[in-house]
Fold this protein.
Amino acid sequence: MVNMIIWTIAVVTALGLLLALVLYLVAQKFKVEEDPRIDEVEKAMPGANCGGCGFAGCRAFAEAAVKAPSLDNNYCPVGGNETMAKVAAILGYEVKEKAPMVAVVRCNGTCEARPKVNEYNGFQSCYVKSLLYTGDTACAFGCLGCGDCVEACQFGALSMDPVTGLPVVDQEKCTACGACVKACPKRIIELRPKGPRGMRMFVSCVNKDKGPVARKACGNACIGCGICAKTCTHEAITVEGNLAYIDPAKCKLCRECEAMCPTGAIHGVNFPKPLDKDAIKERIKARQQKAAAEAANKADAPSGATAPAAAVSAKVKEDKKDE
Amino acid sequence: MSKKHTFSMGGVHPHDSKISRECAIEQLPLAPTVYLSVAQHIGAPSVPCVAVGDKVKVGQVVAQPGGFVGAYIHSSVSGTVKSIGPRQDLAGRMSTHIEIAVEGDEWLEGIDTSDTLITAIPEDAKAIVEKVKLGGVVGLGGATFPTHVKLSPPPGSKCERIIINGCECEPYLTSDFRTLLEKGEQVVVGAAILQKAMGGVPCTIAIEENKPEAIAHIKEVIARLGYPEMEVMSMKMRYPQGGEKQLIDAVMHRQVGSGALPISVGAVVQNVATALAVYDAVQKNKPIVDNSVTVTGECFPRQANLLVRVGTPLRYIIDYLGGVPADAVKIISGGPMMGRAVANLDAATVKGTGALLFLTEAQTRRAPETNCIRCGKCADACPMGLEPFLLNKLAQAKDTDALEENAAQDCIECGCCLYSCPAHIPLLDHIRVGKGFVLSAIRARAAAAKAAAEAAKQ
Amino acid sequence: MSKLLVSPSPHIHSKDTTQRLMLDVVIALVPAVVCSVLFYGWQELLVLGVSVASCVLLEWAITKYLLKKPSTVGDLSAVITGILLALNLPYTTPWWVVFVGAVVAIGIAKLTFGGLGQNIWNPALVGRVFLLVSFPTYMTSWSAPKGLFGVDAVSGATPLGAVQEGLMQGSSVPEIMSAGGYDYSQMLLANLGGSAGEVCALALLAGFVYLCCRKVIKPWITLSIFATVALTSFIFWSVDPSRFTDPAFNLLTGGLILGACFMATDYVTSPMSVWGGVVFGVGIGFLTMMIRYFGSYPEGVSFAILIMNSVVPLLNRWFKQKKFGRK
């Protein structure tokens, strides 16, 4: 009996050692020679394998980064500047800091503002719904509400708000990988810069119908009236196809467009103070009066300009108050 | 015992619900305005050739073909062109529509509006095809493929048989049945014209066995008019017997290959209504300006088969018959298996509109989805021999290669799989998505191959 | 007017539901259940009752409290598992053993895999095999049936068990058969010891025919099992009738009819295509006979089915149905 136990242990141990040796030899013989820096870069990556960089996973990014002559075209949105700095250190490259981006849902067609005109009874997927028709509201462009974007997000940054029926982005969790942008068949989600201290402005609408049609479908729609473009002193807003668009590169976050928008389609988020529409409207009015007065002055002979000066100092005081 | 003619695999047996079969075709009075879509056929949208303010007559060309695969569009009314611009179709999508305010009912000179039957067939096949083209004839079985293109097969392919599709396998639809009964002679002459256009080939008029009156009548008409090599074939009642590939399989016992056209097995299939339109275009110079529409549904108070001018707003048709019933929850343009649910009642009819079906909540609301029990009923039902349970999973996983291997691109979207699934899984919703992936991949490959060939040439 | 419904086609649905299919299977099992209760008495009723109740209760409790999903008890698949499990056990099985079997069948073999439609192995068989391995005494001591109003039972072996024991002791098959007084008409109408489902082949076959007529199952899996069993045993029996039992004996004893008609044809664990099903049936038949003739267990159907269940994904890959228009 004891003999049997001893023999069993001996045989199994010997077998184990033999197989271990075989595995080791095979691993050595079939080892793939790779640049060791690929492994180092891969260790520095966040390991999410989300594809946001455009490559098939973190390892693929590492391989591409090692092969590339510079890091200009390779950026990991999930790891951000921190990770890119590490990668640059490993490879000895220079890397420019990029402004952090975030996904922005450009639709504010809530259940209340954008009533349903029919009931969708197919499979609950935005893509399937978009293949069938333009949606269950009168707006042919707006969010379809089935949550393909929520499904696509690997970081849990998106969720559907049951009251508004629209997706909500958690800006802390969002890594700007772009999966939701690709998943949305209506192209409602856009990657925009996070902005200083998270403050950003955007037009929360993608409706290209004529103003009255858009407004009838949704109370929060952009009607393409152009007031925002006329108001903006930084040339950041363009209106094309009955839809306004704020260029994030030019926007200086003055919120004047938001104050002037008749439908509330323009949104400013993360501002510390609530929007004081009246103050801003006063400021704009004063500026326009001054501009008109200056134009009139140029036409007439130059005269003492105390009134315009007073208006200018009043405007400067108000600007200081806002910031 | 007669052999039952039918296709070789799959199929389901919904109740045929032909509750409107006794309703003779009646003329719908003219609507005050019609809206003619320029995109009512497969191929390039047509290009309007009238301007706002022009006066038009019935049968006058208002839009010309936009490409080789395209069709003429003719005014279905006489009146004034009020606008040419974007308007929503029944799915809410925008396409250009020509709005015409109706004034009177004046037809273009040269169109024979009498009821005289003209049985003499023109001799020149090319002239026939040209007349079919000028008549704006498209496939009225629902696919709306330009008929003159179908009648001009690519060089090297030969037509061996014309099949006239009188199956009308979708439940509820009876407009083709009524056409066979009331305009059977014109249909038969149209079939003979098609025979001549394809070089004098045999013709089979396939009619499902649930229409015995039509079978008897057409047999009698053929015997009386005496066209050679024309026969009626009684088909087993089964859905989708009227599907093009299934019909060719049942009649000629040949299966059209994946991605191939019926002409590759020598068949040309035309719907009964298309054959009628061919008769009108060739013998009467009458282009497509109207079509028969079945308006039906158990909850609909008055069943009807209406002759409707193309471009009539759906709301006008429904109001004429008493309005939308209170317990109707879904309005379908077409049959219950492959028709399209109407999201926009202000849309107008197109050439391919064959029915307006009203379904109640109990008939149509989808039950909640449960687990797949791997019963295989979907695969048994698929007339193309596919495995919907597998394609469903592959489409959800977005595995395009596996989808192509499992022939997702062969799916004819007949709906048999979803119809038969005991777990109420929305199979076809997913398979359509998968089919789209595969077709895009195939197109991309073809484009890349073409580009590579061009580059190689240089 | 309320809002219109919009969905992709098709817009109508057949009357089939999962529940209806399962109900048909329950109805098909009723003759066998009735027969077994008549033959085995109130103890069988207890086994059945405990089995069905445990399976249903466990499924409800696990889906509600552990998985936190809506209960799937309404689709009747737990009821079927309960009935099949009970029919696979001797009527003398204690109630707590039955309960353990239900825990394994529903909890482990079905719900850990994801519930209905996701399991690889037939849950009732997994439960039965687990009990066979864990409680061999309860599972292999058979009593001759005493009927609903019968007299005391006499312990003994099933025909298969008797044959195996007899062979080990050196007797030949014909001797064993005459010693036990086994008669084919008895086996068909079953007045023998065995698991409750081994009884009344006629009742089981009636249920099978009902399911085929209702188009719930296709006959080829079952028929290929019977054909393979008959052929294999015919070959071996012709070679050496003293050592190997004959085809009729093999077809009628053991859980073969129950297994072939109700367990092998379970949708979830069987192949989807015709040829896949035929190969599946051939495999089951062959393995059953090998285990019966050469294995140490007298009964091979349960193991054969479970082994072939493992092969089903491969069979689904190899044998696909013919596509329209393709070679």
About this structure: The first strand of chain B starts at residue 25 and ends at 27. Chain B touches chain C through 65 residues (CB under 8 Å). Chain B has 14 helices and 17 strands. The radius of gyration of chain B is 22 Å.
